[in-house]
Amino acid sequence: MAETKREIERKYEATAGADVPDLTRVRDVATVVDEGVVELDAVYHDTPDLRLAADSITLRRRTGGPDAGWHLKFPVAAGVRDEIRAPLSDTLPADLAALLRSRVRGGEVVPVVRLRSARDVRRLLDADDGLLAELSVDTVRARRLPRGPRASWTEIEVEAADDADPAVLDAVEKRLRKAGVRPSRAPSKLARALAETAPDDHGHDDRPDAPPPAAPGTAGAAVLAYVRKQAEAIVALDPAVRRDLPDAVHQLRVACRRLRSALKTYRSVLDRNATDPLGAELKWLAGELGAARDQEVLAERLRALLGDVPRTLRRGPVKARLRVWDTARTGDARRKAVAALDSDRYLALLDRLDALLADPPLREAASRDAAKVLARAVRKDHARLAARVDHALSLAPGRERDLALHEARKAAKRARYAADAARPTLGKPAKKFSRRVKKVQSLLGEHQDSVVARATLRDLAARAHAAGETAFTWGLLYGREEAAADAAERGLPEAWARAVPL
To answer: What pTM did the predictor assign?
Structure first.
């Protein structure tokens, strides 16, 4: 079973036989314990075209040391990575392979570099013998596989202990810099090994790079940049969903929706004959992810509602019933989301997005000035939203009005996403428009969340009644949800009046 460790470390240039300065002069470091030298042997794996390295992801199989096994590292921030470990085995463990699926697709990972390191370890302890950090002087020998060039170097690596304040790294760095030690130019051993063992490319093509599909400043360049950003977000968020990280499902679903919305909004730029089928697949994926996200939002809402009810008004085992309901639905929703990511249909979608970006189906408007084309598209989405809001507000309260408000919410998202895509081109006007439409979207979202919550509360009340429990508390919550929906509707006209077009 894989386990995850947050790794916070820094690397420094060093020379063979370099002396490490006295680290007991570092703030909070009371003693330095020499742990001796350990021999490490790591084989790093990647696709033949180094897709993992391109995204600063490392995958290695290492022997030697206390943590022998498979290690998969995802970047979090500068000097911070999440390391996911699995026991040593001859082949890549399935749970790690799944985390690479959005990048590897139907390909395979192969050994690309072997690093053998002699690691001289020192443990930095505080006055209570608590571990603050671990410093090692690594003498590294690298070889490009299978039988490529070699390289060697020495570096210093300082890693904060799991429960230590990362500020200790600043103090250690200050001491190292005073001793003339400088930060490494390479972000990782793998990055340095790949750079220093790159084979000579005698077959290099000296022809100039192909021009971009759309000239800078054109509508095509602006739209393709946004499409690429969302497509890359889908690939990057895939492993976060599989790891069940907070908000990962929501962010992946938003990337799908933003991309689908852009393909619709900017049909004057990208040919809909090519993009409509992609939009249908993005809608499918967002729908498969939606069950997990919708359940998460709904459960949080109901827990908050129940938490606001005085204890004297909580009749029957309401908290237990809500917990059982959520547990059952959450498990099913998560399995559905992961199953979608494991499907061949999903991989085909990713490949089709790559193909779209490699050879975009640009229309005549793609060569025109970006500001004019994008502003026109945003105004068109605003007009579409206006028609839906006006229609919804003209209806009497009831099911038809609820459905119309929900359709208006979808149009508000599309208008907001259109403005967000145009922000790099249109600047402050697009940002201001997006912010105001987001207010409209939030009110419509609050209304729709209340509609969904009331349907669930009716179901929970019926289940409680069938089990011989009182439905009083569920009815109380239902009334509060009705009031929340009414408040959202009352606030809509004013928010909508402020959402003026560009």
So the answer is: 0.89
Half-sphere exposure of 389 (CA within 13 A, CB side): 25
Query: Pick from 416, 414, 425, 411: which is nearest to 375 by CA?
Result: 425
pLDDT tens digit string along 244-291?
Answer: 998 999 999 999 999 999 999 999 999 999 999 999 999 999 999 988
Residue identified by tokens 């200050």 is 174
142: three-class secondary structure by DSSP: strand
pLDDT in tens, 192-228: 999 999 987 644 555 556 667 889 999 999 999 999 9
Return the percent helix, strand and coil in the chain, to nearest 5.
Answer: 55, 20, 25
b/e burial code for range 430-465 (CB count within 10 A of at least 16 → b): beebbebbbbbbebbbbbbbbeebbebbeebbeebe
The tokens of 397 are what?
């309260």
Among residues 76, 74, 62, the alpha carbon closest in space to that of 102 is found at 74
Helix (H, G, I), strand (E, B) or coil at 293: helix
Which of 258, 211, 213 lies closest to 231 in space, CA to CA?
258
